[in-house]
Design brief:
366 residues, alpha+beta, DNA Polymerase III, Chain A, domain 2, 3 domains, nine-stranded antiparallel beta sheet, eight-stranded antiparallel beta sheet, 6 helices, elongated
């Protein structure tokens, strides 16, 4: 293999590949990136067996087509520090030389047969939508997925297509985010799947222009996403996703409408005195105003107030402020509506036309 490639494009591709490739693995070949050069294109392939990436760099001068499997991290670090605009990659018997001007390095190669086979994107029954729509749905939901050990299915984002909508749902058992957006319905509607959060994050990284059309494909055990330059795959999570519809309150006695940015600032302000062991802020609402209160035995207490629109009887409810702030960061417009019944019932935050966020309350000493 011998090619000449634009350094910036190669650096971008290697950086994306390194988001997939594990730094340590029981299978040494997985710490490498596979380079495939043919017909004016250099393709970079990386995988950790859970997620995989194919990234295409076009307008490459391919003098000798071929394949090379080289250390991914070292290749990225070296290409990043080069100063030339063009990079040459050339393979010999057991090495791949990366050079630009007077600078070069020889990287040990791995037998391509030892590198895992990564599937190609299947266009059949693929779903088409704008990249910005997909990244918005991920941003509004994936943060609520579970991180600590527990129910395996909650470590991903439920993705389903129904009624002309692409819906994503994530929960960690203490909060729940549900967002949807209209799409053109495919001829064959795939079953709901659970996509690991690492997969959704990688999908978003390869979407460079929110206006570009992307495609989603669903198979028995994986989901794929295709952009102009990349194909990304993620192995689906097994298990049964929680029955999230049962958690969403259908009616509420109290309605609070507030400025989302101001509420976020007030929550941060009061949360400063709360400790990690008792992370809670109490919201007391009455007609026209809301008082926020937080305290901890070792730090003290803090209060704040703000104007709100309120319908209901004087009420109070307490939340983990970090959870509420996570949702407010993704609020689609300037105001947020909080609906709840009792201080022990879930809080339902309306953050947009097709975006709701449920947070379980916290019981605190009065």
């Amino acid at each position: 293999m011998k090619i000449l490639c634009d350094r910036e494009k190669l650096k971008e591709g290697l950086a994306l590949a390194n988001n997939v490739i594990p730094t340590k693995s029981p299978k040494p070949a997985l710490s490498n990136v596979c380079l495939v050069a043919k017909e004016g294109v250099l393709e970079l392939v990386g995988t950790d067996l859970e997620v995989a990436l194919r990234y295409r760099i076009e307008d490459v001068k391919v003098e000798e087509p071929g394949t090379a499997v080289i250390p991914a991290r070292v290749a990225l670090d070296f290409v990043r520090d080069l100063t030339g605009e063009t990079v040459t990659l050339e393979t010999n018997a057991a090495t791949c030389t990366i050079s630009s001007g007077s600078d070069s390095c020889d990287l040990v190669t791995v037998d391509p047969d030892e590198f895992p086979v990564v599937a190609h994107f299947d266009e059949k029954d693929a779903v088409s939508l704008q990249g910005g729509t997909f990244t918005a749905l991920v941003g509004r939901t994936a943060f609520a997925a579970a991180r600590e050990q527990g129910r395996y299915a909650m470590h991903g984002v439920l993705t389903e297509i129904a009624d002309g909508q692409l819906k994503m749902v994530a929960t960690d058992g203490r909060r729940l985010a549900v967002a949807s957006a209209p799409i053109d319905m495919p001829a064959s509607i795939p079953r709901p799947v659970i996509v690991p959060t690492k997969g959704t994050q990688l999908f978003c990284r390869v979407i460079s222009d929110p206006l570009d059309q992307i495609k989603l494909s669903f198979s028995e055990n994986q989901i794929g996403l295709k952009t102009r330059h990349a194909e990304v795959f993620a192995r689906l999570l097994d298990g049964e996703f929680p029955r999230y519809q049962a958690v969403i309150p259908s009616e509420a006695a109290n309605f609070v409408e507030a400025d989302a940015e101001l509420l976020m600032r007030k929550l941060r302000l009061v949360a400063n005195v709360t400790g990690d062991e008792a992370r809670a802020v109490r919201l007391s609402v009455k007609k026209g105003s809301m008082d926020l209160f937080g305290h901890s035995a070792g730090r003290g207490e803090a209060r704040a107030a703000m104007e709100v629109e309120f319908k209901g009887k004087n009420a109070e409810i307490a939340f983990n402020p970090d959870y509420v702030i996570d949702g407010l960061k993704n609020c689609e417009n300037g105001s947020v509506v909080l609906e709840f019944n009792e201080k022990t019932s879930p809080g339902k935050f309306r953050l947009g036309e097709n975006y709701i966020y449920i947070v379980m309350p916290i019981t605190i000493d009065t």
